[in-house]
Amino acid sequence: MVAACAAALLAGLTGTAHAVDNLPPNQPLVEDLQSGGKPCATGDDTVYVSAPPRLSAVLYDPEEDNQPSESSPVSGEFEAWWTDADGTVQRRSYTTITLSSGSRQYWTMPSDLPANTAVSWRVRANDGHATSPWSDEGDGSACSFVYDDTSPEKPTISSPEYPTPDEVFWVDGVGVYGHFTVDSPSDDVVSYTYGFPGGPYGTVTAEQPGAAVTIPYLPLTSGPKNLTVRAIDRSGRSSAEARYDFNVKSGRAAVTRWKLDDPAGSRSAAAESGTPARAGVGATFGGPAPTGTAATATVALDGSGHGFLTPDAPATDIRDTFAVSAWARPAETGRTMTVASQDADGRPGFTLGLRAQDSGALWSFAIGGARVSGGAPETGEWAHLLGLYDAETGKAHLYVNGHEVGDAVAATPAEAAGAFQIGRARGTTGYRDRWHGDVGDVQVHDRVVVPKEVAELAWRKPSLLGHWSLSSDTDGASPEQSGGTPLQLAGGASIYRASNDSCIPELDPDCTYVPPPLVGDGHLTLDGESGYATAEGPVVDTGDSFTIGVVVRLSDSDPAHPMTVLSQAGEHTDAFKVRYDPPTHSWQLVMPERDEAGAPEKVVSQITGADGGEGQGQRLAVVYDDATDTIKLYADGYTNATATASLPDGWHSSGALQIGRGKVGDGWGEYLHGDVDEVQAYAGALRDEDVLGLGTETNPCLC
């Protein structure tokens, strides 16, 4: 009796007595079970796998079993079964190692698992004292999978819009959607992965296993194209790759175009394509065209009931994809005005123009009750507008000066079989929102005008204002390449020339090496104290788009103060300044918002170390795009987010272009200590690809 009591006491001290109150593990939950990484399913949702899968389950033991600092170890008991070809039920089982409660336990199925056979499985937890219910008991469910060991057959591809070159060699074209039907002889294919050269790439899911799919594609460029596709079955197996080749033409021309460059006094506008447009008496031909474009003249509309043009016929069916574009220069911005529209029943089917609102005017494209707006119209300033309705996506887009503005909106156009209008929009009691200003080159396309084409339509070719190679000087003046105004050298400024006696010390130890100029035969050297060069007056119009580039090398590796390489001043401050800022180790473009001392400044920068008088220097460029209200600073042909900013309103400076100094207070300062070469200035904003050509002895080809 005493021995029995002692044994009971000992058992209590060691924890053995706790086993008397042990609770069985929890029943595994169906949502915690996976077949080859796929969620547990059965019946019509049975999982398909491409290899004998690894089954897994998360198993739990009740926390009430735990003493402080104790874990709850459990193992998993898996069981799988299937019916073989002879109708005999086959079973397999597996017990896992013991792991902590809450761990995921695994069983990799044997390699002799039969293919194309439904296999069911279940699992339960064992804590060494008791087992849980099986996962398929009560409200639970067995899991099922099928091992598929056969890959799907290669898909077939066809397209009504873009047949293969064997059928039609070249097909229309850029901006015209193609639809590619993809199918596979295998009836278990559930999706297709696809790709076009340069994109897009993606996956299309079939509505049901074995069903064909359609892949839309919008060609953005012309030339040979191809589509590659692989079929994916329910198990994730992939077919061999199928390839479909086709050739895309350039985008077809506008279905209707009025250049509006008719002679002064004309009473109609000739159509390059489509129907001529009769003009109201408030339309005056022979107006100025936007510089840098192919346009030679425009039409001015006086904003009255007589200021319009119309072909008295629709330009296109706006229920299908179309684009309408024009150059526009408003004479006012305080009221809503229409550049182009097409009549519907008592209202316009679409409008493209200017929309006035309390917060300021915006460019606008409206269709089917939807409107997209953006960009800020300015009185007397040209803008290129393009409104696009994409019937494939059902969305309307607006482009201003070659850039998409606002957010594309879903639209459902109504039938608008009425006449196309330039300068007015249909209302319930007549025409309204009449345009006051100039309009040029109105075009209507019956396709998507792709972004690259939009940019080309809106591009205004910059014109060269001056190119100073700084390779020579006569009487203190360095000539401009085309015979224009030279740069006057002053103070500690001089032209460094290449030496004909230069040699290579490695080959001739008795010679003295003379370094070559930055570019070409010479460069400008500035002493950092009084040296600079200047033009006779302003070179670029800082109130309009401009570009200016320079090659510069600093003589100091750790400059003691800011140094300016380019500036052009107004009455009170520089309109722009390009300077090196030692504390931030960067080149900065500084543009004050107004011609006032202490005016707020827009500052963008490019981080780069000082040269210390060695190397080829840096090619810097400033681009102000008045059409998009942006400024950019380029270093060696490239810009980035920190070197770009918005500048809504540039202002016209009257001061001369300065090389090597800038305005400081009431005088000049920030003199540059270093070398300068290849100053090139343009009216207009160079594109990114054009900026790469700055800094050489030849000017970039603006093609």
Structure explained in plain terms:
The protein has 703 residues and is mainly β. It has three helices and 53 strands. The strands form eleven sheets. Strands 18, 21, 22, 24, 29, 30, 31 and 35 form an eight-stranded antiparallel beta sheet that branches.
- Number of beta-strand segments: 53
Structure annotation, total helices: 3
Class derived from helix and strand content: mainly beta
Q: What is the residue-mean pLDDT, rounded to a whole number?
A: 93
Instruction: Summarize the biggest pleated sheet.
Output: 8 strands, antiparallel
Search tags:
mainly beta; eight-stranded antiparallel beta sheet; disordered N terminus; 4% helix
Q: In brief, what are we looking at here?
A:
The protein is mainly beta. Helices cover 4% and strands 42% of the residues.
Question: How do the helices and strands line up, and which of them pair or pack?
Answer:
Elements lengths: L1 H13 L18 E3 L2 E2 L7 E3 L4 E5 L14 E11 L5 E7 L3 E2 L3 E5 L9 E9 L16 E5 L8 E3 L19 E6 L5 E7 L5 E5 L7 E5 L5 E11 L8 E7 L7 E3 L9 E2 L7 E3 L3 E5 L10 E5 L6 E2 L11 E9 L6 E7 L4 E8 L6 E6 L2 E5 L8 E8 L4 E6 L2 E8 L9 E3 L2 E3 L2 E3 L3 E10 L5 H8 L4 E6 L8 E2 L8 E4 L2 E5 L24 E6 L4 E3 L11 E9 L8 E7 L4 E8 L4 E7 L8 E7 L10 E8 L4 E6 L8 E3 L10 E3 L2 E3 L2 E3 L3 E11 L4 H4 L12
Parallel strand pairs: 3-10
Antiparallel strand pairs: 1-2, 1-4, 4-8, 5-6, 5-7, 5-9, 9-10, 11-12, 12-15, 13-14, 13-16, 16-17, 18-35, 19-20, 20-23, 21-22, 22-35, 24-29, 24-35, 25-26, 25-32, 26-27, 27-28, 29-30, 30-31, 33-34, 36-53, 37-38, 38-41, 39-40, 40-53, 41-50, 42-47, 42-53, 43-44, 43-50, 44-45, 45-46, 47-48, 48-49, ...
